[in-house]
Each structure stands twice: as structure tokens, then as C-alpha cells.
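Lab channel / #folding
Pinned by the channel admin:
"Please post every new chain as: sequence first, then the C-alpha cells as a reply. Keep commentary short and put observations after the output so the thread stays searchable."

First post following the new format, from NK:
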Amino acid sequence: MKYIDEFQNPQLAQRLLDDIKATVTRPWALMEVCGGQTHTIIRHGIDQLLPEGVELIHGPGCPVCVTPLEVIDKALEIASRPDVIFCSFGDMLRVPGTGRDLFQVRGEGGDVRVVYSPLDALRIAGENPDRQVVFFGIGFETTAPPNAMTVYQARKHGIRNFSLLVSHVRVPPAIEAIMHSPDCRVQGFLAAGHVCSVMGTQEYPELAERFKVPIVVTGFEPLDILEGVRRTLQQLERGEHAVDNAYPRAVLAEGNPAARAMLDDVFEVTDRSWRGIGVIPDSGWRLSSRYRDYDAEYRFDVGDITTREPAACRSGEVLQGLLKPHECEAFGTTCTPRTPLGATMVSSEGACAAYYLYRRLDLPARPAAAASTAGSTSASTSASTPDLEGSSVV
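Reply from TO:
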């Protein structure tokens, strides 16, 4: 399969690892800002294969995880209303709000439906003119364009019983907030390739220059991650801090002009709250004044809902890269996929879910044999060091 098998080749992975090992002369800390990349790293044991002292920090790259608690509670309030059909992607249904989740609302009689596209929700609105249909629009720059297009289509075709509950966030302001943190240890970033495929790379050079950090646009397969790490480390070792596109098969400098035009038409930039982190200025989108009638928060008057994060959940520290999931006292005990305290344990892109799924239940920061080469037979889901010829990159 093109661009899958080729980018999981263990021999090429070993060559990249050898090049990385030959490059590194001192410790470095890099952050990936994408939940999909986090899962690739943990699934294939990439962080354990890197040279001693090279650390991969998991950033706030999971769209479900960063959706704030108050927005979840607004969704629960709207979904509970008898005249509403509430539509969402499936990964939001088990994200805990205050005391319950969307699955429980459905169990209590709420009409909560899983859809696979926001256009599915628009179709449902057309089929049910006597009901209000709400789609839960969350995520980064990758999911915002189709949600914007759906609102545009609703307005164009006069479908008045459709609205969007918006919780879209933007990556560049999050990078800026991370770098301003007094606890920040990040020296370079692996930028999310799918975000840049939409938005391009124009927003990153200013950040790289201002904070003196290299930013390398990276894909999602094992070789993509290793190549992104290699390029970032090469810049750091040379004292450089530029934006580099290591994902040219999907990313152009200008991004996707049609998608960006749709975003500019339907949305406007606003401050956004990130779950476990707080408000980041200019880090999100809301519907512009032209489309305000399609804003579910406005339509259902739920703008004044406020909440407080549960004290036992340390997902905010995980999302900021200050804590590895298995370092949390609740991880794997009171917080599991069946009994999650926060979204990072529920989402398919959450760091806590990755550590639990791939059995990183109680590991030291660096296994003794972290730089092992091909020949071992341990699986990537075991608690032992992964290998290239086993299941770590194939």
C-alpha cells in the first residue's frame, strides 16, 4: 500500500536511528503536537529506540482531550433537550463532563447519534424539519474546514434547524503558550502534518525565530517520525532554528487555499479555553457574525455554563508535557478507559490512552536497553524494549 508499507520499513528505520545516534552530542527535548504522532511513537516504541538523552514530550495535540469541560457540559445540556437530535463523532460520547457523558444522556432518552461527517448531521436536519439538529464541532485546523463548509451549506440551502456547537482550536498559539511557560523544557517541535496540509507553514517561521526553536513538519508513520526527529536534532546540533517541511508528499507551503478561504468566510479567531490548560488568546475559532444564527451556544443560550476540573485528574499536566501519563497516581488504577477521569484516557489520540493501550503501565523514564538494535523478539505492546525486526516499526 503506497505510503504505508514504505514508511514502516525496519531497515530504513535502523538507518535513520543510526544517523540520529551519530548526530547527537548532548541531551535534547522535542515535543510532538499531534495525538496521532503520539500513538505512533508509543505503539512502535520510537521514544525508547532514540539515543540516551533524547526525549519526546507529548504536547496538547489530541482534539478531544483539549475540548474544555464547560463545552462538554454545554453539549450535555443541549443533548438532553427533547426537541434536539445531537450528532457527534463517536470519540466524544465517552468524554466525561460534570457527572456524566453523552452515552449516559443517550441512555436517559436523549437522541444522541454518532455520525461520520458533519454533512450527515445536515442531512438528518433536512429529514427532521420539526427537530433541532446540533453537530458537535471540535478539533484543530484539520476538522474545522468541513464543519465550516457544512454551516455554509446550511445557510445556502436555508436549513434553519441545524446548528454547530463550536470548540475549534489552533496549533500556533498553543506552541506560543507552551514556550511562554516557566516550566517549558521544549527545544524543538514536530509540527502536525495534517494541520499544515490545511493551513500551510506561514505561521511557523515567526515562532521559530522568536523562540529560537526548530519546527519540523512531520507525518505519522514510523519513518515520518524518525525523519522529523532527525531533521530537528540536526538543526539543534548546528544551532539553527528554521521551519523545515519533512512531509512534502502532503504539505505545501501555502496549504489548501480553498479550505482556508472557507475558514475565513465562516469563522473568526477568538480566545479559547483548553481543557486542563486554560484560556489561550487567539487560539480558537467561533462562527462569524454572518453565521451567528447557526451557533448552538447562542441558539440554546448555554454560554454561561462554567465548571471546575476534577482535582484527581492531572490531564492538564499531561497535555502541557509536564507529566508522562504513567507518572500520574490515578493512571491505570482509578483512571482507566472504562472509568476515565479525563479525556486523555478516552480519546483514540490521547496520551494516557496510548500508554494504557500499549502497556506503558509502569516504566522508568529510560529502559536500560533503549538503544537496542534489530534482533530482539519483544513486541511493541510489552513493557520491554521494542525492536526494529519485531513489531515496533512494522
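NK: The two ends are 13 Å apart (CA to CA).
TO: also worth noting, The first strand starts at residue 28 and ends at 32.
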